[in-house]
Amino acid sequence: MDAVADALKRSFGYDEFRPGQREIVDAVLAGRDALALMPTGGGKSLTYQLPATMRPGVTVVVSPLIALMKDQVDRLLANGVAATAITSALDSDERERREQAALRGEYRLLYVAPERLVNPNFLWLLLKLQRERGIALFAVDEAHCVSEWGHDFRPEYRQLGQLRERFADVPMLALTATATDRVRADILSQLRLREPLVHVASFNRPNLLYDVRQKSKGAYNELLAVLRTLRREDPDAPAIIYCQSRNGVETTCAQLVADGVRAAPYHAGLSAEERTRNQEAFIRDHTTTLVATVAFGMGVSKPDVRLVAHMDTPRNLESYYQESGRAGRDGEPARCLVFFSPGDRAKVEYFIREMSDPGQQAIARQQFQRVLTWAMDGDCRRRGLLAYFGETLAEENCGACDNCLNPTEREDRTVDAQKLLSAVARTNQRFGLGYVIEVLRGAQTKAVIERGHDQLSVYGIGATQSAEEWRHLGHALLAQDLLAEATSVGGYPTVRLTPLAWEVMRGQRMVEVARPRAPLRQARAADAQMAQMDGPARDLFERLRLVRRELAEEAQVPAFMIFADSSLRAMATRRPVTPPQFASISGVGERKVAAFGDAFLSEIRAYCDEHGLELWPEGGDIPDDVATARRERRRRERPERAERADSSRLRDMDTTKLPTARQTLEMFRRGLSLDEIAEQRNLAHTTLVGHLCDAMNAGEELDLERLIPGERLRLILETFARLGVTPLSPVKEALGDAVSYDDLRVARAALRNQQAEG
User: Fold this and answer.
1) d(Cα 605, Cα 698) in Å, to the nearest integer?
2) Contacts 24+ apart (CB under 8 A), 417-421
3) CB neighbours of residue 80 within 10 Å
4) Contact assessment for residue 540 and residue 600, using Cβ atoms and an 8 Å cutoff
5) What is the number of other CB atoms lying within 10 angstroms of the CB of residue 162?
6) Nearest-10 Cα torsion for 8, 12, 17, 19
7) Fold classification of 410-514 (topology level)
8) Are 636 and 629 in contact (CB under 8 A)?
9) What is the pLDDT of residue 251?
10) What is the mean pLDDT of the chain?
């Protein structure tokens, strides 16, 4: 294994790079500038985090949001990589402490906002850092914010080019997930990258299923049906629901809560404390669904989101790609649901009119029209998205969008189109689509009669079709550029004819329109990786998820920061027994072996023991602690002789030479409390509890009163008797803060021991 691959496994637990990562890492290690354009979930952060562990000096990371910095720092610390962020949320003492620690060389990575980075005082600190410790790299995350042509332009990013003047020898890496050709060129120019490696990865996210539906009064019920299908597969599957307005967020969230969904809102109208609380609840899986405005998500790197739904038409394809890309960042299957309506133009127009530059207003209107065209098109959704970024999809059928899985039939609607277009012309192109449809259907409204439009030749010629059918046709004509929307003097939306419309009216062009269809019903099949697991492996996987949740609760971090689902599946399938075997699992690095190995290995051994499964099926010697567990089972058959042998052996035993779980057991038997053992062995309380549970699963008798006070133990045992011994979550919910997960793990192990004896 070469040095780079070795560092990848040691620090981050991965056995191989994702596509494109190694090329970028090698360029950074060689001191070369680079622009990395990789999709959300493609592993951008590793391309600078791994070199930071190998190059001398500090890697300075520019990031736009405090939440984004915190997420990255937490992940690095979990992997044993020294990192920190200096933000406006810190008081002056803490900021000073971190700055001095950086100057002492205590960090490998330092995260800052662009505003701070170009501040004269902070620039002075960087110059001192460069002299005393060296700056290994400037990594500019979310680099599309540099460009005024991007969907999320930040003026302060434009100033980052001055870093090249002050730190001419420090390489720079720009990273983004969304950038058109024009935005890429602007990034290169503004940051003054010199002969950079430019890596443009595929924008294709094959694990995402795109489902686009025209919005109707039943949109909420359709959303609820999708959520319930998702939750039948996984009750805790995370979902993000985007709404255009605060009112939409509050209304949708209230409906979901009333229908039994654990949902929380997120929008600018909430206090900062409420937003933070709701965001943390979602990240840590206390809330399964977050209903939010599109302001949510840029600073959140939650990899296991299984659904992203837009209840309103996105403003442009670039922002939609980024928002929908928050689904399935772990590479697992996820769904992207969109409810669109040309009527959403009025909402979007409000934001467009807030722009001061008329040119930018025109671009925004064009971008929204392009979204509508994409939404109403019968072609592959994936092909349309990729084409926006200049990429071509080779396959005719992507197999993972509503149009490819449930193709629409197209029908000739030329005659009806001529009727509608004629009605637009006869009303002098001065009204909206809804009014034109009223004329077509012969509505006897006051407005129609007062304007004399009931005397037009087109009045009533469309009475046999419903308003909804005419609206569907009108939206199709807009998408095909046969109609265009404009704004009247009074600020009302109107429809007007395009040059192509006159060709239709003269009979020179045919109009085909997709038939309305039923919503896509995705099968409830589990993803391919789960489907390949046998029954015991799936059961063990669920047990390991519970261990992960308990450890996450104990450490007060999101569960995905412990291990990804893919790592748990590998553990459940391969069933490692020793730390080296555990370390061979993808996603398990040195730090995580030390921090979490005992807890997961204990659960794997206990499960295999309960079900008579072979440990580490691919073979290998049986480790000492497994052999010990087997001897303990045999000991139960000869208790008196074994106890006498144990008594003479334990008197002179050096426990430091025992396997780690056995050390804990012997120290506990000698009368030490868990706090004393934790202090002497420098291990977490939860890890020690795992050791003792492992011992009880192997048949050891322990004094439970020393671990759980009598009244609390009685309460736990009564609740277990009522609810069952697994999983622990229902028992914890029933008892609340009166007990800890460690209490429940100990009691469960004791009950299993009693059942085995019985």
Assistant:
1) 9
2) 417/473, 417/477, 417/482, 417/504, 417/511, 417/513, 418/504, 418/505, 418/507, 419/458, 419/461, 419/462, 420/462, 420/470, 420/473, 420/474, 420/477, 421/477, 421/482, 421/483, 421/497, 421/501, 421/504, 421/505
3) 16
4) no
5) 13
6) -140
7) Arc Repressor Mutant, subunit A (1.10.10)
8) no
9) 94
10) 83
How many C-beta atoms surround the C-beta of residue 94 within 10 A? 12
Answer yes or no: pTM beyond 0.85.
Answer: no
**Coil/strand/helix, residue 264:** strand
Between the alpha carbon of residue 89 and those of residues 63, 67, 277, the distances in Å are: 14, 11, 16
> Which two three-digit tokens encode residue 638?
């000869």
Distances (CA, A) of 690 to 602, 729, 748: 6, 17, 12
- For residues 260 and 254, is the Cβ–Cβ distance under 8 A? no
Q: How far is the C-alpha of 347 from the C-alpha of 369, rounded, in Å? A: 13
Planar angle of CA 473, 478, 479, nearest 5 degrees: 95
Alpha-carbon dihedral angle through residues 319, 324, 328, 329, given to the nearest 10 degrees: 10
For residue 61, the surrounding DSSP H or E stretch is: strand 58-62
Q: Do 287 and 315 touch, CB atoms closer than 8 A?
A: no
Tokens 């259907």 belong to 441
Distance between CA atoms of residues 145 and 113, nearest Å: 12
Using a 10 angstrom Cβ sphere, with 0-12 exposed, 13-18 middle and 19 or more buried, the burial of residue 550 is buried
Class of domain 208-405 as given by CATH = alpha beta
Residue pLDDT, tens place only, 580-606:
899 889 889 888 888 888 889 888 888
The residue with greater pLDDT, 260 or 526, is: 260
The DSSP secondary-structure symbol of 736 reads G
DSSP 339-374: EE-GGGHHHHHHHHHT-S-HHHHHHHHHHHHHHHHH
Whether the domain at 3-200 and the domain at 410-514 fall into the same CATH topology: no
Question: Is residue 695 a contact partner of residue 702, using CB atoms and an 8 Å limit?
Answer: yes
> Whole-angstrom Cα distance, residue 737 to residue 728?
14
Whether 526 shows a pLDDT value over 60: the answer reads no
In contact, 477 and 420? CB cutoff 8 Å: yes
Sheet holding 34-37, edge to edge: 83-85, 109-112, 58-62, 135-140, 172-176, 34-37, 197-200
Helices then strands, counting H and E runs in the chain, come out as 35, 17
DSSP string, 96-159: HHHHHHHHTT--SEEEE-HHHHTSHHHHHHHHHHHHHT-EEEEEESSGGGG-TTSTT--GGGGG
Location of structure tokens 């890492």: 25
Task: Round to whole Å and give the CA distance between 188 and 446.
Answer: 59
CB atoms within 10 A of CB 399: 11
Which helix or strand (DSSP H or E) is residue 84 part of? strand 83-85
Superfamily the domain 528-757 falls into: HRDC domain (1.10.150.80)
pLDDT at 638: 39
In sequence order, what DSSP letters do the residues of 182-214 get, joined into one string?
Answer: HHHHHHHHHHT--S-EEEE-----TTEEEEEEE
Q: Answer positive or negative: Cα dihedral of 722, 723, 729, 730.
A: negative
Q: In degrees rounded to 5, what are phi and psi of residue 6? A: -65, -40
Note the pLDDT of residue 709. Answer: 85
Window from 17-26, 308-317, 531-540 with minimum mean pLDDT: 531-540
* CATH of region 3-200, choose from 3.40.5.10, 3.40.50.10190, 3.40.50.300, 3.30.420.10: 3.40.50.300
In the chain, where the domains are located = 3-200, 208-405, 410-514, 528-757
Longest Cα pair distance anywhere in the chain, in angstroms? Answer: 111
Cis geometry, peptide bond prior to residue 727 (ω within 30 degrees of 0): yes
Instruction: Write out the H or E segment, with its range, that includes residue 644.
Output: helix 639-650
Question: Which residues face 210 on adjacent strands?
Answer: 336, 401
Q: Which of 39, 2, 739, 32 is nearest to 386 (CA)?
A: 39
What b-and-e string marks burial along 23-36, b requiring 16 or more CB atoms within 10 Å of the CB?
ebbebbbeebbbbb
Token pair 């000991």 in the structure block, residue: 635
pLDDT band, very low/low/confident/very high, at 152 (cuts 50, 70, 90): low
